[in-house]
């Protein structure tokens, strides 16, 4: 699927008084000029590109490499500077009750479980504002707890439903939602609901629910994702790519293992560059709300909503959390197959620039403190040693040699 759509050019009615060859030559020239304007970036527009993309015979672009956004002159803000007084107070409030209170609460919880049956829901930590344990019952919470204890470290709360009563509801609706890849529901006994964190926005869900004729019980609670970002592609870039491949849903669960690779554009299709020695260039699919833009320097880059990090550029090494599965029922996967063919598809989610992923403010803070340096001195020293590593090639970039080059403990990197 080519999101830019086919290019149409109007035909011209030729004067009947001219000989055939006189008509044919202008037509041929016109067709050549029209095709050329579709298939390449104009000279004027090309002047604004730091490196002009290669235009293939198909008319789509190839971009195999790009430099990362340079590091800033000033170090990133300190983690300590980011932590406001309000944040510190909030962390203090969210501390857990002391250990002796925890042990007493667990002993009481076992007794209530045995003697109160279905009326007892469970125990949890509340903060009002100090942290303490709250015992929850379906009814008569204050009177029920008073029969067992008057410990001021404990509170009584009414409400909720036993987990055993909610679990069949969770099982039923998980089975209904699964074929539509809507999300997974979990039991929240203290709230008395089965809560689904959905992978789709409300409009998408309502459409499916109407088609299925669903009437949801009151104990089912839905949490919708925001509406998708419809602007996947700057219209000026549409002639360069076949599509911007994006999942049709947000991920249900993302594992936190770090993956890396170079995301490239080849003949209008986004791919993962093959490792040294050859191999397949896997097709790439991004998260639902990724957009293709040109950054401030004019490079093709990936933009995700709500980030203040430098945009990763097409052609540079990127990192992402994974592995992520690819479902052939996904409309984005089907569109990618239609536009770019068969082969392995790698979901890279919302990738970051590998160049900038090694910037950690807390490392700068700790090194400055440990070595009696300013944060600017540490930042400049780290940039110098990272430059040495980059010159050594990609194999050194993500190895323990980084800590050796920089004389930084490996745990800091």
How would you describe this structure to a colleague?
The structure is a single chain. The protein is of the alpha+beta class. The protein is built from 14 helices and 16 strands. The strands form 6 sheets. It has a 4-stranded antiparallel beta sheet. Helix 11 crosses helix 12. The protein is flat. The two termini are 42 Å apart. The N terminus is likely disordered.
Features:
413 residues; four-stranded antiparallel beta sheet; three-stranded mixed beta sheet; disordered N terminus; alpha+beta
The assigned structural class equals: alpha+beta
Biggest sheet character: 4 strands, antiparallel
What characteristic shape results from the CA principal axes? flat
Percentage of β-strand residues: 15-25%
The poorly predicted ranges are 1-39, 397-401
* Fraction of residues in H or I helices: 25-40%
Could you tell me the radius of gyration in angstroms?
A: 30 Å
Strand numbers in spatial order across the main sheet: 10-9-14-16
How do you describe this structure in short?
This protein has 14 helices and 16 strands. By secondary structure, the chain is an alpha+beta fold. A hairpin with a 5-residue loop joins β1 and β2 (61-62).
Topology:
Elements: H1 20-39, H2 43-46, E1 54-55, E2 61-62, H3 79-82, H4 85-93, H5 99-116, E3 120-127, E4 131-137, H6 141-146, E5 154-158, H7 163-177, E6 183-188, E7 193-198, H8 202-212, E8 220-223, E9 257-266, E10 269-272, E11 283-286, E12 291-294, E13 300-303, E14 317-322, H9 331-340, E15 345-349, E16 352-353, H10 354-357, H11 361-371, H12 375-392, H13 394-397, H14 401-406
Parallel strand pairs: 4-5, 7-8, 11-15
Antiparallel strand pairs: 1-2, 3-4, 6-7, 9-10, 9-14, 12-13, 14-16
Helix pairs in contact: 11-12
């Amino acid at each position: 699927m080519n999101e830019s759509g086919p290019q149409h050019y109007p035909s011209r009615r030729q004067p009947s008084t001219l000989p055939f060859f006189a008509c044919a030559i202008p037509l041929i020239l016109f067709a050549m000029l029209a095709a050329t304007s579709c298939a390449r970036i104009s000279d004027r527009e090309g002047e604004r590109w730091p490196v002009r993309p290669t235009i293939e015979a198909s008319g789509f672009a190839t971009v195999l490499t790009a430099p990362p956004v340079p590091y800033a002159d000033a170090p990133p803000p300190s983690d300590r500077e980011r932590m406001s007084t309000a944040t510190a107070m909030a962390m203090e409030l969210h501390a857990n009750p002391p250990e002796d209170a925890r042990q007493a609460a667990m002993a009481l919880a076992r007794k209530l479980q045995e003697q109160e049956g279905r009326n007892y829901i469970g125990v949890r930590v509340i903060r009002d504002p100090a942290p303490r344990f709250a015992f929850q019952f379906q009814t008569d919470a204050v009177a029920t707890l008073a029969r067992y204890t008057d410990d001021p470290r404990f509170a009584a709360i009414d409400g909720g439903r036993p987990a055993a009563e909610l679990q069949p509801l969770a099982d039923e609706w998980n089975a209904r939602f699964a074929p539509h890849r809507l999300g997974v529901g979990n039991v929240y006994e203290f709230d008395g609901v089965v809560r689904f964190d959905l992978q789709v926005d409300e409009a998408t869900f309502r459409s499916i629910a109407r088609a299925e004729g669903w009437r949801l019980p009151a104990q089912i609670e839905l949490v919708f994702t925001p509406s998708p970002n419809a602007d996947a592609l700057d219209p000026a870039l549409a002639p360069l790519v076949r599509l911007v491949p994006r999942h049709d849903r947000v991920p249900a669960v993302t594992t936190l293992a770090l993956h890396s690779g170079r995301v490239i554009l080849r003949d209008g299709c986004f791919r993962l560059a093959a490792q040294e020695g050859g191999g397949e260039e896997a097709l790439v699919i991004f998260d639902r709300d990724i957009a293709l833009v040109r950054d401030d320097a004019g490079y093709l880059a990936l933009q995700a909503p709500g980030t203040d990090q430098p945009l990763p550029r097409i052609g540079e090494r990127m990192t992402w959390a994974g592995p992520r599965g690819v479902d052939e029922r996904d409309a984005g996967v089907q569109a990618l197959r239609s536009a770019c063919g068969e082969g392995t598809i790698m979901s890279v989610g919302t990738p970051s620039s590998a160049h900038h992923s090694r910037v950690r403010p807390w490392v700068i803070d700790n090194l400055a403190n440990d070595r009696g340096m300013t944060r600017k001195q540490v930042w400049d020293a780290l940039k110098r040693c990272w430059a040495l590593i980059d010159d050594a090639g990609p194999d050194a970039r993500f190895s323990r040699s980084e800590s050796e080059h920089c004389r930084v403990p490996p745990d800091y990197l």
